[in-house]
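Subject: for your reference before the review

Hello V.,

The reviewers asked for a structural picture of the protein, and I figured it would be easier to keep everything in one thread rather than splitting it across files. Below is the amino acid sequence we used in the manuscript, unchanged from the supplementary table.
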Amino acid sequence: MSYLVLARKYRPKNFSEVSGQDHVVRAIQNSLKQNKVHHALLFSGTRGVGKTTIARLFAKALNCLEGITPEPCGKCANCISIDEGSFMDLIEIDAASQRGIDDIKELTQNSQYTPTQGKYKVYLIDEAHQITGPGFNALLKTLEEPPEHMKFLLATTEPEKLPITVLSRCLQFNLKRISENEILLRMKDILDAEKIEYEESALSIISKSADGSMRDALSLLDQALAYEDYKLSENNVIDMLGLIDNKYALSIVQSILSQNSEKLKEQLEQLDSKYPNYNDVLDSIASITQEIAYLQVLDTSKVDAHTEVVELSKSHGPEIIQLIYQIAINSKRDLSMAPSTKEGFTMAVLRMFAFQLSESKTSPKKEKVLAEKKIKKSGPLENGKSEKYIISSNNWTKQVAKMNISGAVRQLAANCFFDQIDSDILYLKIYSENEHQMIDRAVDDLNSYLINHYDGFKKVLIQIEKEDGDTLAGEVKIKNKEQIIMNESRASSDPVVQEYVDLFGATIEETK
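And here is what came back from the structure prediction:
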């Protein structure tokens, strides 16, 4: 007995089995239910999302012996014939090979004959965009006013190549890519029906590799089952697809952020021994840093993420995470220009490491110079401790401008204004429009900086205020407005400008 591949064996036999195209199925079933079926339908979308399958189900619903129905019975002679591909009134045309004017003329001539088995004669034209220009011209009249017994179903992956005259004559349905979760659920149903053992993590890898195509997913599933003697495990699927376990990319990111050069060297050597696709590894690094950045904005307790990724999101600033992500994305473009993909990838990782080094470390000599300058500037007190500055409402904005902070912490400080110091607590306020600046990590870092560098309080509290206060950001905005007003005043009082205003009836406009 010949083996029937999973994609064909488990092709949907009714509309309820179609995955991920509810918006199309619902519209078609409603038209069938009301018996208001358009004579020409166009199904567009990428490969393997169900264009031809839905078209065949539509033909079954029209020709089912139980009558036009939103769900064909699947048991009558007509339904079985369509499933087996032997129904005479469903004519499938491959426009990749039957695309010329002679082929289309033959189609239009045969369309005049009434159906032999069913109620409707259905023409299913696959890859319709490949029909030639003269072929489309020969089809237009029949497509617009076909005989009552005839329906046209067109399927294409490139609808933009169809003439507008064809598009205007069809009811258009755009099929979307199928989600990874829907592909995974469909594969689980199939494997359960086949009574095959599997690891769900292996199915996750296949569904991701399918890139939204159910047919691609089932073809990969067939290949994986053959590779493993009809068992499915994560490790074997990774080997079959030539993928690299995400743990390698995560370890590289951890080594970069921790500045562990020895461990990074060891990981690069281990990675090279796997003969990886370095473009995919850069994708994995970018995905990991994106997840870290995502966790830095959201409450980690409400997100399902690996413990290692959560720890990285808490222990490192968003600036360096964004930088690593950007390097990973840009380096993909440079791989083709590198002497080899391995060298291009290694250079990308070293660039990530180098930028992190410049952010987090300085040479011992430089550290010594900076320490001496700091001591010289502050000077020791009698108790041996370094001098701390005093902060108040009068000097708050000036002190913020001098603070050695950056990124989200500086943005937060610049939008805060001084309220009071009471019972060893510094009370700051922030305008409600800037509440989004209060990221937990930024608040903690600002609190630590203020307590360590200023005297008179042991705790900092930031409260939200509806009215704007005296902030550094506010001062900058006021200065900008004052400058605009001054410029306008100068322009209006300039005798040369006034002469042009009077002579030409001109007006003075503000420039931004």
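For the response letter, the relevant points are probably these. The longest helix spans residues 472-493. The chain has five domains: 6-174, 180-241, 246-360, 389-470, 474-504.

Happy to draft the paragraph if you're swamped.

O.
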